[in-house]
Write a structure and sequence with these properties.
351 residues, alpha+beta, five-stranded antiparallel sheet, 9% strand
Length: 351
């Protein structure tokens, strides 16, 4: 047995040597891979710099021409103006609002200015100046989002609520999740926006919203009638209690005994005036809440901020030709340069 011990040690040393060599080769491949990427990036940068240096005059001329053309287009192109309106829809009229915005854009695309002029009650020539309608969620604070998240978490299963984080809730919200909406209109006419506000009335006055308002009003009427009936009952009970107390105060307290010893006193009837008073206050508060709700939501939408009389000039990136055209020119030059190099390489390649 003692003769076999050296062989075991030798085998273990060989195994360890193979393992260390494998680990070393693995790290060498990783370093070579990273080095290759860095070398490729560096070579590409040098290649681009070389191309710019070799063709500096041509690139400068092309960029200058693109700047001149872009500047000319910006000066000659009709400017676009925009204005926004913030609205808060009620009775789920927001669905009809989003649908109608898409409908208005489809009318613009099909050049059906007659229907749009009828909807907004303005002339067709003014309608033709409108470029597009846009709708987006209105401004929301983080506190509002947190409140919506808490309400949503309470409305779903507790297990599912634990899995849903605030970040997931915010990320998965869509356009219909908001209660306030921003409507933006773009036009080549700067003072058209003030004439568009009334046209959105038809957007919110749809049959479904009207039905929801009727149901709401009927529910409020039923609840209010019940509360008023309860108030009349409370008034009747209060009159009864007052009559009892008045009768007892007239009768006075009766005491029978010897020199005040072992008196027999008439007990007063126990009434609940304070409990009735508290119930009356609670019922009147409930009626007040119903009245306030009917007043606050007596329309299909509220205008938070209306369209401005004079629109603002649009400065979207796609309208800045002095930036877009030079950038496109540079990209085109580099693509042509690479194409020439590839064609030249293909012609000289012999395999």
């Amino acid at each position: 047995m003692s003769d076999k011990l050296p062989d075991n040690n030798t085998n273990e040393e060989v195994d360890l040597g193979v393992l260390f060599n494998a680990i070393g080769n693995f790290f060498n491949k990783i370093f070579d891979f990273i080095g290759g990427i860095i070398k490729a990036i560096f070579s590409s940068i040098v290649f681009l710099i070389k191309a710019i240096i070799e063709n500096f005059k041509l690139i400068s001329i092309v960029i200058l021409l693109a700047l001149i053309i872009g500047f000319g287009l910006e000066k000659t192109k009709t400017p676009i103006f925009y204005s926004e309106m913030l609205v808060k829809p009620y009775f789920n009229s927001k669905y009809q609002l989003v649908s109608n915005i898409d409908y208005y854009n489809s009318l613009l695309e099909s050049e059906n200015y007659t229907d749009l002029a009828t909807i907004f009650e303005i002339g067709e020539e003014e309608i033709k100046t409108i470029k597009k309608f846009e709708i987006d969620v209105g401004p929301e604070t983080e506190n509002q989002l947190i409140q919506e998240y808490d309400e949503y978490a309470k409305s779903i299963d507790s297990i599912r609520a634990q899995e849903l984080t605030f970040e997931d809730f915010v990320e998965n919200r869509d356009l219909y999740s908001s209660d306030v909406f921003s409507i933006m209109v773009e036009s080549t006419k700067r003072d058209i926006f003030k004439h568009l506000s009334n046209g959105f009335n038809t957007t919110f006055n749809n049959e479904y919203s009207k039905k929801l308002m009727r149901v709401r009003d009927s529910t409020i009427a039923i609840k209010k009638a019940t509360y008023l009936k309860d108030l009349r009952k409370i008034d009747s009970l209060q009159m009864v209690y007052l009559a009892i107390l008045d009768q007892e105060s007239k009768n006075g307290a009766v005491t029978i005994g010897v020199e005040g010893l072992l008196p027999l006193t008439q007990e007063r009837t126990k009434t609940k005036e304070f409990d009735l008073f508290r119930n009356e206050i609670a019922i009147r508060d409930s009626i007040r809440v119903l009245d306030e709700l009917k007043i606050e939501e007596s329309v299909y939408y509220d205008v938070i901020t209306n369209f401005s009389d004079i629109g603002l000039r649009s400065n979207k990136i796609e309208q800045k030709y002095t930036l877009i055209l030079p950038l496109l020119a540079i990209i085109s030059l580099f693509l042509m340069y690479f194409a020439i190099k590839i064609i030249k390489f293909a012609k000289e390649y012999e395999g």
